[in-house]
Amino acid sequence: MDMSKIKFKDEIELLLSNLDKIPDGFWLRTDGRKYQVIWFMDRQKPSVEQSYTFDEERFGITKDGRIIWGFDSGCSCPSPWSQSDYGDDNYNIKTWKEFEVESESAFDIGWDDECYNNLKDYLLLIKTNISAEDVLSTKNAEVRRYLIKKIGYEKIKQMTNAKIIHKDNTSELLDLEYNSQIERYVKVKDSSTDREYLLYVPSHIKTCKEGIAWTFDLKEEEYNPILET
Amino acid sequence: MTEMYRQGDLLFIKTNKTIGTAIKSKDILKSSITGHSHSITNGTIYVNDDINWEHKGNFYLYIPDEGTEIIHPEHKSIFLSAGIYEVRRQREVNGYVQD
Fold first, then answer.
1. Cα separation of A211 and A200, whole Å?
2. Residue B43, by phi and psi: left (phi above 0), alpha (psi -120 to 50) or beta?
3. Are B8 and A192 a contacting pair at CB < 8 A?
4. Does A189 touch chain B (CB under 8 A)?
5. Are residues A134 and A147 in contact, defined by beta-carbon separation less than 8 angstroms?
6. Among B9, B80, B87, which Cα is nearest to B41's?
7. Which residues of chain B neighbour A226 with C-beta distances below 8 Å?
8. Minimal Cα distance from B8: which residue of A?
9. How far, in whole angstroms, is CA A31 from its chain's centroid?
10. What does the pLDDT read at residue A124?
11. What is the 8-class DSSP label of residue A115?
12. pTM assigned to the model
């Protein structure tokens, strides 16, 4: 699906029907023609950044796939519901089964890069058949880390014809190939969490330590932390 | 050799300069994915208002005589002694390590 332009009801529902798991719920908050993805960290209330205001147009996609129209400011379709119909003062979501979008008109949703990347990242977290491109094209290293764990670091190396340039304790500097391009990454292991990350570094990097130093804009010989956690 | 410490994707480099405006928050950086923050228990964060949150040159810490703990839910704490520290954020070729 071309996510650069999504028509409201039909394509969102088609998108949901192709997912392995229905999201617990996420909201798209509009600001003119721009949208940002917001999702609930837990299902009780949004996180601090995603403050819940009632004077902006938005809609939600709920666990059972219903589309809930938000507010009617600036929206091409009037909202038939009031605030109390779908949420209480503490932002707890009520069950939505009794609601359904009846409006026939749809509108084009324009995604700016940040919105697209965030939604794409979120959908990757619940996707089952993850490709090397899915992993390596993900900008967020934390999401990438999760995907690597999901399919396995050794599997990633197999999928990308990994070539190890340098090894150092728990780190590896390697070239990974996908979509006819080769990218250099340094694999690091976090000493506190034992999580493994692949960090995209320039192709001139020759050692693991040089790669890690580069990520902090330091030369290899300048990077000497007294403590790393 | 410059004194420095790393916690997760943040590097704290001791320096002798401060740039920017003091802020009230004790949170240096909060992940929009996990909601976790790197925070100080003591001291002041300075933000360079002229620069968007780039990987360096944007955040400084002023740590008083008692020192501070840098805390994070997933990483062991780091103790920083008194002084001024530049905070650098880990980067990749295509942007930041975390958003």
1. 9
2. left
3. yes
4. no
5. yes
6. B80
7. 3-5
8. A229
9. 20
10. 64
11. H
12. 0.66
pLDDT digits (tens, 9 = 90+) for A65-111: 333 333 222 222 222 233 344 444 443 433 333 222 222 222 222 22
The reported pLDDT for the residue numbered B52 is 57
Question: What are the Cα distances from residue A28, in Å, to A68, A71, A138, A197, B47?
Answer: 11, 12, 21, 29, 30
The nearest CA of chain A is from the CA of B21 a distance in Å of: 22
Beta strand pairing status for B37-40 and B27-30?
antiparallel
Weakest-pLDDT range from A38-52, B12-26, B53-67, B85-99: A38-52
ipTM score of the complex? 0.90
What single DSSP character describes residue A93?
Answer: B
Residue with tokens 């959908």: A123
Q: Do B98 and A216 touch (CB under 8 A)?
A: no
Q: Convert the pLDDT of each residue in B39-50 to its tens digit.
A: 999 999 998 766
Answer whether B81's CB lies under 8 Å from B63's CB: yes
Is B88 within 8 Å of B55 (Cβ atoms)? Answer: yes
* B4 touches A at CB < 8 Å: yes
Token pair 């617990």 is found at A24
- A24's CB contacts (< 8 A; 6+ apart) are A39, A40, A43, A63
A135's tokens: 């992993």
Helices A141-151, A113-125: crossing angle, 10 deg rounding: 20
Beta bridge partners of A186: A173, A199
Angle at B34 between CA A177 and CA A97, to 5 degrees: 105
Structure tokens at B68: 């501070």
DSSP A199-212: EEE-TT--SHHHHH
**DSSP H or E run through B71:** strand B68-72
Q: Which residues pair with A174 in a beta bridge?
A: A164, A185
